[in-house]
From TrEMBL:
Name under which the protein is recorded: Flagellin
PANTHER family per the UniProt record, alphabetical: FLAGELLIN B1
Protein task: Flagellin is the subunit protein which polymerizes to form the filaments of archaeal flagella.
Lineage: Archaea, Methanobacteriati, Methanobacteriota, Stenosarchaea group, Halobacteria
Keyword Transmembrane: yes
Single GO BP term: archaeal or bacterial-type flagellum-dependent cell motility
Length: 198
């Protein structure tokens, strides 16, 4: 039933073949494990980066604290209009650093649509509280963004805001988070008003 191996050299050859197969299996398993570990590490890094970007797009946004407009007389008609709008802005709760110079402002209203970066505007970013180099770093920081609608180059298709004028202003931070503020000029403006809340 069993064949007796009398030659000792034949017994050794059978052991070497088994050993070679075993080593080959270990090498294949090691290579496969290395590939799996590398892939898992890459996916983990990519997932962390995606999570951070998604969080930034949701949380790193501006909060509009107040909006006011400067009332002036239109020299050609004698009517009172708003020539520039001031937005006092702060970081939203949980937001990281917000660079106002890199923030995009988009205006949509009855005179059309314009979009540009605050740093490229003739806008004046004024430090109200704690702002350095146009960057909001703390939740208590406040900056006043003055957008001049009477100066060519800011918003070419807007020229003074008449009473009753409505528009939507959207601030988009460098991370992609947006905040929209609807503003409406009161239907009556008088010479007694220097500014008006919008």
């Amino acid at each position: 039933m069993f064949e007796t191996i009398l030659d000792e050299e034949e017994r050794g050859q059978v052991g070497i073949g088994t050993l070679i197969v075993f080593i080959a299996m270990v090498l294949v398993a090691a290579i496969a494990a290395g590939v799996l570990i590398n892939t898992a590490g890459f996916l983990q890094t990519q997932a962390e980066a995606t999570g951070e970007e998604s969080t930034s797009q949701v949380s790193d946004r501006l909060q509009v604290v107040s909006t006011s407009g400067n009332v002036t007389e239109n020299g050609s008609t004698g009517n009172y209009v708003v020539d520039n709008v001031t937005f006092v802005v702060a970081k939203a709760p949980g937001a990281g650093l917000v660079d106002l110079g890199e923030t995009t402002v988009q205006v949509i209203g009855q005179d059309g649509q314009n979009s540009t970066q605050l740093g490229d505007l003739n806008a004046d970013i004024e430090n109200v509280l704690g702002v350095n180099n146009d960057v909001l770093t703390d939740n208590s920081d406040r900056a006043a963004v003055h957008i001049n609608f009477s100066a060519p180059g800011d918003f070419a298709n807007y020229n003074l805001l008449e009473p009753g004028h409505r528009m939507s202003v959207t601030f988009t931070t460098p991370s992609g988070a947006s905040t929209t503020k609807e503003i409406r000029v009161p239907t009556t403006l008088t010479q007694d008003q220097d500014s008006v809340r919008l």
